[in-house]
DNA sequence: AGAGTAACCGAACGATCGGTCGGGACAAGG
DNA sequence: CCTTGTCCCGACCGATCGTTCGGTTACTCT
């Protein structure tokens, strides 16, 4: 087995440390000195594994974007009634978001100060647009309410899903991915008010 | 009238410029040089009006927090059935969020690197807690669904509301505060699926 | 006109930024 | 043994960070 070499960093293991610090302090608020302390190696040693700070960001957001766009390639997201494809995508978004939590967290916080950040924002908009089209198709079928604008609904549902990165923490006794996905889908499609009760 | 003096900066007018730049580049990503260029005065002149960068942040998040906590003091948020008080608070949150958009935007992006940021995070948690108690009371009355955990629902609804800062832009022909508030309330309480149609 | 002061400026401060460089420690292969 | 290449280090680079300071401009008041 060739993988059992030295106990040292790879670009991937270093990335996992860096992303964690990025999420705690913010990308701009994180210095290479902070990263070196968190990783336990010197600042200059980091440059042995990656080209620089921005490459770490690029690797992180790429991983997040690959996970999200991968959803759209899955069969249940491509065939069937739009409303059911939509619900599948929503559930899978929650699952991917939790599975790749730190990477997606970082993706959702980029502001657009560098080329890498602007590229990430562009890809995000592209993904949002793909899901919005799905919602529009479901509305055309009459399967989702049309009294609220499609773009607005898309943004609000995305807001609900994306907010997961602000509070979900995978600490054993908490809820798992599936449970969160169920709750999000139920709330998004079914609403908050007690079913059959009406407006008190 | 003593207010018509010179055409110059006050701490308030300087703040409005600073908050805009903070939101574009992120607080950590904004230098005093950036602020001076945006304000059209020299870097050192800024210190004539405010003590420093962090005071600008503190003034901004204070304004946002005052707006939000003010909602809880309004009569419709204090008396009546919890579910109706909750819906009122949700609508008012949207309105305040839009009325004080740049300030609330900045508040929602604070990470906790400085004392000011940690104080802002603490106040935010306090506000969230107050609204969560309202939701809990509504659930006790049987007015909102109880199959989803109260804490989880609170967070998801907050996520939906707070996401407004990510896309709402007050450009004349867009929707106004009331319309957005209606959409949020309808989606949060009524759900996405077509009413009376069920899950076909 | 002259005094007082609010508003502003350029230059510079020490500290820290992201990144570079030459070299040392260490394991693998001969 | 010695070479080779990976991994890491301290020292240092120019640039930029938030902030300070001495001094100038421009307006108000008497």
UniProtKB/TrEMBL annotation, chains A, B:
Residues 8-68 form the HTH tetR-type domain. Residues 31-50 bind DNA. The keyword Transcription regulation applies. SUPFAM superfamilies: Homeodomain-like, Tetracyclin repressor-like, C-terminal domain. The keyword Transcription applies. Keywords: DNA-binding, Transcription, Transcription regulation. It comes from the Bacteria. Pfam families: TetR_C_24, TetR_N. This is TetR/AcrR family transcriptional regulator. It comes from Streptomyces erythrogriseus.
């Amino acid at each position: 087995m060739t993988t059992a070499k030295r106990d040292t960093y790879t670009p991937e293991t270093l990335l996992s440390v860096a992303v964690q610090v990025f999420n705690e302090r913010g990308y701009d608020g994180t210095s290479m000195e902070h990263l070196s302390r968190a990783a336990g190696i010197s600042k200059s040693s980091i440059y042995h594994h990656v080209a620089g700070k921005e490459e770490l960001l690029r690797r992180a957001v790429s991983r997040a974007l690959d996970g999200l766009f991968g959803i759209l390639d899955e069969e249940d997201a491509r065939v069937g009634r739009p409303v059911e494809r939509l619900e599948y995508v929503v559930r899978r978004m929650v699952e991917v978001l939790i599975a790749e939590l730190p990477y997606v967290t970082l993706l959702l916080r980029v502001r657009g100060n560098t080329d890498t950040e602007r590229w990430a924002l562009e890809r995000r908009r592209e993904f949002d647009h793909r899901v919005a089209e799905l919602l529009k198709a479901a509305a055309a079928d009459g399967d989702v309410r049309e009294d609220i604008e499609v773009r607005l609904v898309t943004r609000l549902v995305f807001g609900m899903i994306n907010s997961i990165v602000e509070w979900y923490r995978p600490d054993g006794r908490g809820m798992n991915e599936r449970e969160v996905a169920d709750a999000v889908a139920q709330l998004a499609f079914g609403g908050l008010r007690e079913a059959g009760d009406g407006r008190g």
